[in-house]
Amino acid sequence: AKSAGAGQWRRYEPSMTDQARHSELRADLGRAAEEGALFLEYQPIVALGTGRTVGFEALLRWQHPTYGRLPPGEFIELAEESGLIVPIGEWVLATAMRAACRWPAAAQVRAPYVSVNVSAQQLRSDDFAETVTRLLAETGLPAHRIVLEITESMLLRDDDKVWHALELLRGRGARVAIDDFGTGYSALGYLRQIPLDIVKLDRLFVRGLTTSRRQRDLVEGIVTLTRALSLDIVAEGIETEHQRQASAATGCTYGQGYLFARPMPEAETSTWLAAGHLP
Ligand code: C2E
Ligand code: MG
Ligand code: MG
Ligand code: MG
Q1: For 66-105, what is the HEC assignment?
Q2: Which of 56, 123, 202, 228 could cross-link 180 (Cys pair, CB 3.0–4.6 Å)?
Q3: How far does residue 243's CA lie from ligand 3's centre (Å)?
Q4: Which amino acid residue places its CA nearest to atom 14 of ligand 1?
Q5: What sign does the CA torsion over 4, 72, 63, 33 have?
Q6: pLDDT band for position 111 (cuts 50, 70, 90)
Q7: Which ligand 1 atom sits nearest the alpha carbon of residue 259?
Q8: For this UniProt entry, which residues form the secretion signal (predicted)?
Q9: pLDDT tens-digit readout, 9-62
Q10: What separation in Å is there between the alpha carbon of 250 and the centre of ligand 3?
Q11: 3-state secondary structure of 28
Q12: 10 Å Cβ neighbour count for 130?
């Protein structure tokens, strides 16, 4: 009985609790998607040797009427709880693919790929592989220019459906990346078995590279393994020149992080590519 009134009153209370903000965001999220308040930014993924941009990761943001620009950490979980992540995730895929279609190839150089984060629920929905395939057809993006980022935990469950969907998409030319590698269960051995093309090394390792001998040895081990399996490796969260050098010296071929560029609006990606970030 008091919920409507209390909710309204809390809206104007300066010290609103996280809990209340949570429920408010939950209520707003459905509308946000419809009203175009969600948008993507793109962060370059570069070849550490040449500095060339090989791809961009699409990162979701929400322009909230009261709270301003919210990072995904504030609402992805809500979207998962409510099931909204499935339609939102489809919008992300379609939007990112359309952006990628506008990125140019240069002489001798492939057009950059777009890397999209996929949530567990999205991946496990019955028609995930068909949705991706349909969106590729609708947007005209060649399958080899999409990367699907998933996390370790999504593959640990004994889930034939997920593996089948990923194998199907890889068969059609899409690539699969494991995100935040090393933060999950990290049984290195299972890298051999899963349908995978790229390992994104979590930024905690990148930070550790320059501070701990043990961490460096560990990353070298991971690099050796990924090489043996012909996987690409992207070092995440490179913020300093020292970290860039250490990542390259350890054998990471690609990198992503504030040192190169922060996530940027789509309009800036073509400027970025034109400004000499293609050789
Ligand atoms: P992620 O996929 O690991 O994305 C990388 C995050 O690290 C991004 O945070 C990015 O802005 C941040 N980052 C990049 N370079 C640096 C750096 O040099 N230093 C530091 N400290 N951080 C850096 P963001 O955009 O806040 O995204 C957080 C997470 O939200 C993502 O982590 C991803 O798991 C999730 N996410 C983002 N967009 C989507 C989406 O469309 N769908 C789903 N399901 N999840 C998403
Ligand atoms: Mg990611
Ligand atoms: Mg990541
Ligand atoms: Mg990460």
Answers
A1: CCEEECHHHCHHHHHHHCCHHHHHHHHHHHHHHHHHCCCC
A2: 202
A3: 16
A4: 257
A5: negative
A6: very high
A7: 18
A8: none
A9: 555 455 567 788 888 888 899 888 888 899 999 999 999 999 999 999 999 999
A10: 19
A11: helix
A12: 13
Q: What is the DSSP string of 221-270?
A: HHHHHHHHTT-EEEE----SHHHHHHHHHHT--EE-STTT---EEHHHHH
d(CA 182, CA 194) in angstroms, rounded, equals: 15
What token pair was written down for 270?
A: 């073509």
36: helix, strand or coil: coil
* CB-based contacts of 76, cutoff 8 Å, min separation 6: 60, 85, 119
The distance from CA 194 to its chain's CA centroid, rounded to whole angstroms, is 19
Give the separation between CA 217 and CA 181, rounded to whole angstroms: 16
Stated as kind and residue range, the H or E segment containing 113 is strand 113-117
Residue located nearest, by CA, to atom 34 of ligand 1: 117
Distance between CA atoms of 233 and 220, rounded to whole angstroms? 11
Residue 276, amino acid: G
Residues paired with 55 in a beta bridge:
45, 113
Residues whose beta carbon lies within 6 Å of some atom of ligand 1: 43, 59-60, 71-73, 76, 89, 92, 117, 119, 149, 179-180, 203, 237-239, 256-258, 263
Is the pTM here over 0.90, yes or no?
yes
Mutation to probe ligand 1, out of 59, 93, 258 (largest number of atoms < 8 A from CB) = 59
User: How far apart are alpha carbons 141 and 187 in whole angstroms?
Assistant: 34
Spatial distance between the Cα atoms of 241 and 252, rounded to a whole number of angstroms: 14
Q: Going by CA atoms, what residue is nearest to atom 45 of ligand 1?
A: 117
Q: How far is the CA of 235 from the centre of ligand 4 (A)?
A: 10
pLDDT at 2: 42
